[in-house]
Amino acid sequence: MFVLLIGVNRRLRERHAVAAPNLPDILGWLDLVALGTVCDVVPLTGLNRALVRQGLKLMASRASPGLDALARVARLERITEAWQLGFALGPRINAAGRLGHSALGTRPLTARGEAEASVLAERLDLLNRERQVIEQRLLATAERSVQAQLDAGRSVLLAVGEGWHAGVLGIAASRLVERVNRPVFVIAMDGATGRGSARSIKGFD
Fold it and tell me: Tens digit of pLDDT for each residue in 2-54?
């Protein structure tokens, strides 16, 4: 999207030189580009690496009240490294969507004042803690449910539970794969309907 905006901006400047001063400075959005790139687990090579590097410089200058507030609730003095985006800021933003409040995740990123940003960041931090508790409980239950399959030497595991929170199924499946090193399906049942996520290991699609 950022590369597309660069192209659109360039074309508008070429065709409408008079309007050029009114076009947005998209370089000022590189902090969001870096955040999205890291949190989407995009390989940090080539252009991606350059975009993240410049975005981190922008974050370090504390240009965004929202990102700065998220860093504070994550107990980060400054944002200077990519891992901070993936392990501190990203999970707090994603927690809103996982627990059914997806619109809240974007609001700190567009907040214009420190007070508004701080309130929103605190709410996201609370949701993230709630998400962690839900995830831990679901993971513990899922582990127990696949133990018999592990004991039987099953190559692919299926964890099924009634009323499991659908928003954390993917995380639980990933954690379970890390622990058992086998492909895993985790399915939440709601009556006769199931919603699930699957995660695998290297070499098994």
Answer: 999 999 888 888 887 766 678 888 899 999 999 999 999 999 999 999 999 99
Coil, helix or strand at residue 152: coil
The per-residue pLDDT for range 142-174, each reduced to its tens digit, is 999 999 999 999 999 999 999 899 889 999 999
Going by the DSSP 8-state scheme, the letter that residue 44 receives in this structure is: -
3-state helix, strand, coil in the chain (%, to 5): 65, 10, 25
Per the prediction, the chain carries an average pLDDT of 92
Q: Yes or no: say if 59 and 79 are a contact pair by the CB < 8 Å rule.
A: yes
Residues with Cβ within 8 Å of 181's Cβ and at least 6 positions away in sequence, in order, are 201
Q: Of 78, 84, 64, 73, which is closest to residue 125 (Cα–Cα)?
A: 73
Please tell me the distance from the alpha carbon of residue 99 to that of residue 112, in angstroms, as a whole number.
25
| Total-model pTM | 0.82
From the list 108, 118, 113, the residue with the least C-alpha distance to 32 is: 108
Contact 166, 195 (CB under 8 A): yes
- List Cβ neighbours of 115 (8 Å cut-off, separation of 6 or more): none
The CA-to-CA distance between both ends of the chain, in Å, stands at: 29
| Interatomic CA distance for residues 128 and 69, integer angstroms | 15
Is the distance from CB of 167 to CB of 99 less than 8 angstroms? yes
